[in-house]
Design a protein that fits this description.
2 iron, 2 sulfur cluster binding, Adrenodoxin_Fe-S_BS, globular, about 15% helix, 2Fe-2S_ferredoxin-like_sf, Ubiquitin-like (UB roll), metal-binding, binds FE2/S2 (inorganic) cluster, alpha+beta, five-stranded mixed β-sheet
Length: about 100
Amino acid sequence: PKIVLHAPNGALFTVDAQIGASVMETAVKHGVPGIVAECGGALSCATCHIYVAEAYIDLTGRADDFEDEMLDDTVADRKPNSRLSCQIRMTAALDGLEADIAPEQ
Ligand code: FES
């Protein structure tokens, strides 16, 4: 499945994800700028903040309680479509997933 990411510098990246890989892992692997992912996906840094495009929110599901708390500590403004990208695992149904990377991590 493909992921379309809008980097903070305005560049658009369309990258191939493996099923089961997280959005964070996929972005880092492809050198997409803007995701820091300090904790490597352990859900303890909140530096993998993205804004999921409206059309995909139902497909990605919502943040669980712990992620929800972590989202209160992001550097960039939290929005209703904020997610930590290490917590979204790719499925075939998520093909085309589009998101903006938060301007600051
Ligand atoms: Fe640290 Fe997502 S990479 S919370």
